[in-house]
Specification:
single chain, Rossmann fold, Helicase, Ruva Protein, domain 3, 5-stranded parallel beta sheet, 28 helices, 55 strands, globular
């Protein structure tokens, strides 16, 4: 029965194959079945080769991008092709692995035939692709627009000066230099070093110079661990481990591992002395890892020298005119300002001496002041003497800073400024820490709540930032410039009216023999203090801030003398049980990242009002904490080990105002399922507080008690079910929770937060079920979301809209809904049909549609909402005046953004960017044009919208004045309107990319940028005067790009890419007009345009003076590039690539681009019709032969690659060959008719002094001509492949110049008899030759011609294969001439016998690896007993092998 089944299977197979076998050779069809396994194995082998080639190309592209090089089109194309093929191979391999069989034993012949055929087809495709990978040249090129200028790059707060611009340019140039690993920037305090390197760092990362940019501050007393921590946080790893802290070696290895894949720039700010980065910090750079570079700043030039910086760059002060411009801008002065004030300003500016920080702070302080205040400020500057300051530059800065300080209105603001000096240099000060310090010292007396004090401190920070005494560095963070910090410490010590001396420093040990009695605040940052002093006398001390090491214990003896202590902040300490037993006056206790042993004693601190255990090692909150009757703030954030808060403890803290519990991922709460007796706190205890106004909390949805509802709060960060925030994630949401009103809710527990919804500013909902909308479903009888600024909805499967105003109760509200919303994100809500269900959707003009107002909305992102038909109803769209960004993706049913309407007062006046992709029902963006103008729109990207026909209607011609970047991709129905599209005609357009717009065509009547309505007169003429970049791809119906009238405006066009436009006939249509000027055109890349016959249409202007790069590929009808009239019009063209041009012949036997003296790189591949006639030779046109003055020179040519140009008989005529003095690389392959590189001549002055690499394939001869005139003195690599008519390679005269030759590879040269012909001359010296590989040279009998010099002293590897007549390698006379030969391979040499029963290469004492296979005539050989090293031997088909004197034979 089984046999019958197999017969049926075989008959089916025969039927399936019959058609193929009738039409194709039968043997090939049987081979698909018989060679199934071989085909599969070959496919796997080629697949691995393709993966490797793709990886190598990817590395080259990434390296080019890091160097800010633009990427060649063919490189990106190859990568894309590989990416398309490889997934198909995975599918095919998976299908093969199924191993279909009949009853598990009879092969399925149909399956085997089909898959074998597929495998072979894919193998051939891969082989062709691998050839292109091998032939690929450089992947990147230098673009003059790659690095924007500092004026373009700089942020609004950065002051660009002549000095800073020069320093910026020098730093960027040095960062791109491979041999520069450390750069030093030096200059005086306050000159702007830190600001400049931060700008460099920002843009080095932005423009892909580096994958990561790390900034760490070193300071006068560098702390290795602090620097490591700062670097680690940027690179997302933690230096702490279970043993305490990772070692320097682990830090080193981590950086090395990162740098294998990423380039890292480490900026070390404020270096004061030499520091060993490798030994002290553990930073691998330079030779240890070239992916890491160091940029340091310092006040002292000698530090740069000590650190051995390869580049030392100074940063000077502002010049007089720059100082005046900066001062006037900050002080609000102009030409119309009062003359007397401007006179005083001139004197003040002179006092600032060009120091930016002095100018900015003083000008900000005097802004808006009257003449008397200006004069008073100058008198103070002029009369003040700071004799106790040693540095004269700092004196000048202190003078102006003091004036700014004195202009602060109230003492509290000045004290907040002084408190900032408690933090280390360059520290990002979290304002909340200042709030808690200010509360502890009662800075704002009479203010009853911490929230009110917080508001006052925030106001003080704003005043200080406006006065430029503090720097803004993110949400709720400020920073002090190091000079300003020094000034603050100086003020605290010298101005008696504050009576608040501060000691703040980074120390290695506790200062000895120093009295702390006068100080009211002490701050030490250190991890080196081994032991703290005992009974330290500090009777006036109110604030103590101390960092340290968790291994160092802090005990009560240290605090005994601090009887007045109000604020204590300890970081990374080991806290003993009795530490604070005497500190009964403590008001604020801040224990961050501390190891806490037994803290029950804290229950005795009855005056304690602020208590923080943030990030500390605490597993359970002791019951005694409940005794703190006056506690107003409890912070347990990021206590990752905290598991339990005792039941009812929270309830006992009756005065508690603020509670922080975010980041406590192990904390358990009592629920209905809690086992009796476990006594965990319950969330319901939170509602027992009458004073609680601030809460942060992250809990699982399961921990919410049934029917629990959060009480009303002023500030909150409540995250239910979203997971836990990570402390090492920078600036997470929860860090600003004292200032936020944020809800993140996953699942259906939103009812617990219903009292918070009305005040919420940020709301994120995920996986919420049972709610068809937000309003009215969540309204509960009150207005909600009036203050909401950010809304995110994800995977809420029941939600059909956000707001439904069709319900009667919504229409009764007087306040517009969502009026404060700034950001809206909706993702994966597949049931959502509209965002806003407006009551009068069918007849918009009849009702009060203004109920929903999005007047503050700036950013909208809608993704994967498949049932949405439109986004904004007309009534809502009228309120979108602030909308800046619109992102829509994968909304398959979306038909319009705004539905059709007669209403015209929709004004999207702020819209800057529109991104649309994957919206297959969208036909145009016309609904955005109701207002007739999108005056700020700069960027438009539309991708993969299968039905989109055009962008905007013609009526928008004047309504897009700033649109400069347009991308249209994957739009198969895109045709434009009336033969064009409005976005392609704009004078503001700078970058245009069109890809896969297969239906787009410019009609004969209505051409691009020449609409019917515009043709009536010159006043309506369309200009593309700003266009710089054009990329057009796969637009198959385009016949030309630019009509003549538009082409006249293309003076700024720099880059032109055209690919796969099959019908393109011309770039600019034929015309008699000659005033087309493409004066800025630098690059032209054309590929896959099969109807294009030349680029002559670009030559209307007779000159392309800036054109440097020309690439033309796969244009099957292209015959030539430019006409001969352009001979003088391409003065800078230096790189030409011509590939896959089967009809390319040039004009009159040549092409103009091959004759240019500026040419440096030339690649010609698969130009099978190109031929240099006997009369008209390459670089010798008829029109140029008339006199010597017209002689063509290729004096700049360095690189030539010629492949598959089958009609070429030679390359360089003699006259041109004389100019090839710079030629370095010459690669020739598969040129079947090539007879000579340079034709035979009597000319004797041809000299090729520079060649480094020669590849010659299928050349008839390079022999009897003028070889004695050629020198290959720089040649290092010679690769000769498939040159079947060659009898030898190098004539004797040339061989004498091969002293630098290192690598020689010869393969498939069937007639090769000798490498160098026989000669009596003995002064041939191949002194550098290291490797010789010979394969399939069937006429070669030995390598004796290489031994003319009697010694190959550096030869280490010899491999000979498939040479059927080879009898021996070298003669015995060279026995002592192979001192380093250690690896020999001899395979398939049927005539190899050696000389005198042995072969010399088998006897050398240096031999380490030997492989002999299929050498049947080598009947025996003896390995010399002089060999004293380990030997690997692989021998096949040998009858005898004698081995003697070998200590270790491995195999």
């Amino acid at each position: 029965m089984a046999c019958g089944f197999c017969e049926d299977a075989l008959s089916n197979c025969v039927g399936t194959l019959l058609v193929d076998w009738v039409a194709k050779p039968v043997g090939r069809q049987f081979n698909y079945i018989c060679c199934f396994h071989n085909n599969v194995e070959m496919l796997k082998e080629k697949k691995h080769e393709l993966i490797g080639a793709r990886a190598r190309l990817q590395h080259k592209i990434e390296d080019a991008k890091r160097q800010l090089l633009a990427i060649e089109d063919d490189a990106g194309g190859l990568l894309s092709k590989a990416d398309k093929i490889l997934p198909n191979l995975e599918t095919l391999e998976s299908e093969i692995q199924k191993n279909k069989r009949c009853f598990n034993w009879c092969p399925d012949w149909i399956w085997r035939y089909r898959l074998s055929k597929k495998a072979m087809k894919n193998t051939l495709v891969i082989c062709k692709l691998l050839v292109k990978f091998d032939q690929l040249g450089t992947v990147g090129y230098r673009s003059t627009s790659a690095i924007p200028t500092i004026e373009f790059l700089s942020s609004k707060d950065f002051t660009v000066s002549k000095s800073s611009k020069k320093a910026f340019d020098q730093i960027i140039e040095a960062l791109q230099h491979d041999k520069v690993s450390m750069i030093g920037l030096w200059g005086m305090a306050g000159v702007g070093k830190t600001t400049l390197v931060r700008e460099v760092g920002t843009h080095a990362e932005k423009f892909k110079l580096f994958d990561k940019v790390v900034i760490a501050t070193v300071t006068q007393k560098p702390n290795a661990e602090t620097i490591q921590d700062e670097i680690a946080k940027y690179l997302d790893f933690n230096m702490k481990n279970e043993r305490g802290r990772k070692s320097r070696q682990e830090f080193w290895l981590k950086l090395q591992k990162l740098q294998k894949d990423k380039r890292i720039l480490i900026i070390l700010d404020d270096v004061w002395a030499k520091i060993d980065l490798k030994e002290n910090i553990g930073i691998p750079f330079a030779e240890d890892h070239k992916g890491c570079k160091i940029l340091l700043t310092t006040r002292r030039r000698q530090v740069c020298d000590a650190m051995e910086c390869q580049r030392t760059i100074p940063l000077g002060c502002l010049e007089d005119n720059e100082a005046r411009a900066l001062f006037n801008a900050k002080a609000g002065l102009s030409d119309s300002s009062v003359a007397s004030i401007k006179d005083v300003a001139t004197k003040v500016i002179k006092k600032c001496q060009g120091l930016p920080i002095a100018i900015v702070t003083l000008a900000s302080a005097l802004k808006g002041k009257n003449l008397h205040r200006w004069e008073a400020a100058y008198r103070r500057l002029n009369n003040r003497r700071l004799d106790d300051i040693e540095d004269i530059d700092e004196k000048n800065a202190y003078l102006v800073l003091e004036v700014s300080f004195d202009y602060l209105n109230d003492k509290e603001t000045k004290m907040c400024f002084l408190l900032c000096s408690l933090f280390p240099e360059d520290y990002e000060i979290y304002v909340e820490e200042l709030v808690r310090y200010a509360w502890g010292i009662e800075l704002y007396k009479g203010m009853g709540s911490i929230q009110v004090v917080r508001s006052e401190v925030l106001a003080a920070m704003d005043i200080l930032k406006d006065s430029c005494l503090l720097l803004n560095c993110g949400e709720r963070h400020v920073k002090m410039h190091d000079l300003v910090r020094d000034f603050a410490l100086w003020i605290a010590s010298n101005r008696t009216e504050f009576s608040f001396m501060i000691k703040s420093d980074v120390v290695e040990s506790w200062p000895k023999d120093e009295s702390f009695e006068p100080y009211k605040a002490v701050s030490f940052k250190t991890s080196w203090i081994v032991e703290l002093p005992k009974r330290l006398l500090c009777p006036n001390l109110k604030i103590l801030v101390l960092g340290g090491d968790e291994k160092m214990t802090t005990s009560s003896e240290f605090f005994e003398g601090m009887t007045a202590l109000k604020v204590c902040a300890l970081n990374s300490r080991l806290i003993s049980p009795d530490a604070f037993q005497f500190q009964t006056n403590l008001t604020t206790l801040h224990l961050e990242s501390c190891k806490l042993l037994d803290i029950s004693v804290l229950g005795q601190l009855k005056k304690l009002e602020v208590l923080s255990f943030s990030c500390s090692d605490i597993k359970e909150l002791p019951e005694e904490i409940g005794d703190l009757d006056n506690l107003k703030l409890l912070d347990l954030s990021y206590c990752e080990e905290l598991q339990r808060i005792p039941s009812q403890l929270i309830r006992r803290l009756s005065k508690l105002e603020e509670l922080y519990l975010h980041g406590c991922q192990l904390l358990k709460w009592a629920t209905e399922s809690t086992v009796r007796g476990e006594r965990f706190a319950s969330l319901s205890e939170l509602n027992s507080f009458s004073n609680l106004i601030v809460l942060s909390l992250e809990v699982s949805s399961e921990d919410i008690p049934r029917d629990f509802v959060f009480c009303k709060l002023q500030r909150f960060y409540v995250c239910l079910g979203f997971g836990f925030s990570n402390f090492y994630g920078l600036k997470m949401d929860s860090e600003i929770c004292p200032f936020s009103r944020s809800l993140k809710i996953e699942g259906s527990v939103i009812e617990a937060c219903k009292q918070l919804l009305g005040d919420t500013k940020s709301l994120n909902l995920k996986d919420m079920v049972g709610y068809p909308n937000l309003v009215p479903s969540l309204e509960s009888g009150q207005v909600v979301f009036s203050e909401l600024t950010s809304l995110g909805i994800e995977s809420c499967e029941h939600m059909k809209c956000l707001i439904d105003t069709t319900k009667q109760q919504v229409l009764t509200n007087a306040i517009p809904i969502l009026q404060s919303l700034e950001s809206l994100e909706v993702e994966s809500c597949n049931e959502m049909q509209v965002l806003f269900q407006i009551a009068e959707v069918r007849s918009i003009q009849q009702g009060t549609s203004h109920r929903v107002s999005l007047q503050s909305l700036k950013v909208v992102r809608i993704d994967n909402c498949n049932k949405l038909r439109y986004l904004f109803p007309t009534s809502v769209a009228q309120s979108l005046g602030q909308l800046e960004e619109l992102h829509i993706s994968d909304c398959l049913e979306l038909e319009e953004i705004i539905p059709k309407t007669e209403v015209s007062n929709i004004n999207l006046q702020s819209l800057r960017e529109v991104h649309v992709s994957g919206c297959n029902n969208l036909t145009s963006l016309s609904s955005l044009s109701h207002g007739q103008i999108l005056e700020k729109l700069t960027t438009l990207r539309i991708r993969d919208c299968s039905r989109l026909e055009y962008t905007f209607p013609i009526s928008m011609a004047e309504g897009l004045p700033q649109l400069n970047k347009v991308t249209l991709e994957g739009l198969p129905e895109f045709k434009g309107r009336d033969g064009n599209d409005i976005v392609l005609t704009l004078p503001s357009l700078q970058e245009l990319e069109m890809r896969e717009c297969t239906q787009f065509i410019i009609s004969a009547e209505i051409q691009i940028a020449e609409l019917r309505s515009i043709q009536e007169g010159p006043s309506h003429h369309v200009s593309l005067q700003s266009l710089k970049f054009v990329r057009t791809r796969n637009c198959n119906k385009l016949r030309y790009l630019f009509p003549t009238s538009v082409a006249q405006s293309l003076g700024q066009l720099e880059v032109l890419h055209i690919s796969d436009c099959l019908e393109l006939e011309e770039i600019i249509p034929k015309t008699e007009v000659s005033n087309i000027n493409l004066q800025s055109l630098r690059e032209v890349h054309v590929s896959g345009c099969n109807n294009l016959t030349s680029l002559s249409s670009l030559s209307h202007c007779q000159s392309l003076e800036k054109l440097t790069t020309l690439t033309i590929r796969d244009c099957s009808r292209l015959e030539y590039t430019f006409p001969i009239s352009m001979a003088e019009g391409l003065p800078q063209l230096n790189k030409v690539t011509l590939e896959g041009l089967p009809e390319f012949k040039g004009r009159d036997g040549n092409d103009i681009v091959l004759t240019l003296p500026s040419l440096q790189e030339l690649e010609m591949r698969e130009c099978t019709q190109f031929i240099i006639s006997a009369e008209i030779q390459i670089a010798e046109l008829r029109s140029i032969q008339e006199g010597p003055s017209h002689h063509v020179s290729l004096q700049s040519l360095k690189f030539v690659r010629i492949h598959n140009c089958n009609k070429l008989r030679y390359l360089f005529p003699t006259s041109v060959a004389q100019s090839l003095g710079q030629l370095e690389v010459l690669l020739i392959s598969d040129c079947l008719e090539l007879e000579e590189i340079i034709p035979k001549t009597e000319v004797s002055n041809i000299n090729l002094p520079s060649p480094r690499e020669v590849f010659i394939a299928e050349v008839r001869s390079i022999q009897e001509g003028t070889s004695h005139h050629v020198s290959l003195q720089s040649l290092k690599v010679a690769i000769i492949d498939n040159c079947n008519k060659l009898r030898y390679l190098f004539p004797t005269s040339v061989a004498k110049s091969l002293g630098q030759l290192e690598n020689l590879k010869i393969s498939y040269c069937l007639k090769l008899e000798e490498i160098i012909p026989k000669t009596e001359v003995s002064n041939i010296n191949l002194q550098s030759l290291r490797k010789v590989h010979v394969k399939a040279c069937k006429n070669l009998t030995s390598l004796s011609s290489l031994s003319h010099g009697q010694s190959l002293e550096k030869l280490t590897k010899l491999r000979i294969r498939d040479c059927s007549r080879l009898e021996y390698t070298f003669p015995i006379s060279i026995a002592e001439g192979l001192p380093q030969l250690n690896k020999v391979t001899l395979e398939r040499l049927p005539e190899l016998k050696g000389r005198d029963g042995n072969d010399i290469v088998l006897t050398v004492p240096s031999l380490q690896e030997l492989c002999v296979a299929d050498c049947p005539q080598l009947t025996s050989f003896i390995i010399s007993d002089k060999i004293q090293v380990s030997l690997f031997i692989c021998v096949f088909t040998l009858s005898t092998m004698l081995v003697g004197g070998i200590e270790r034979v491995e195999e």
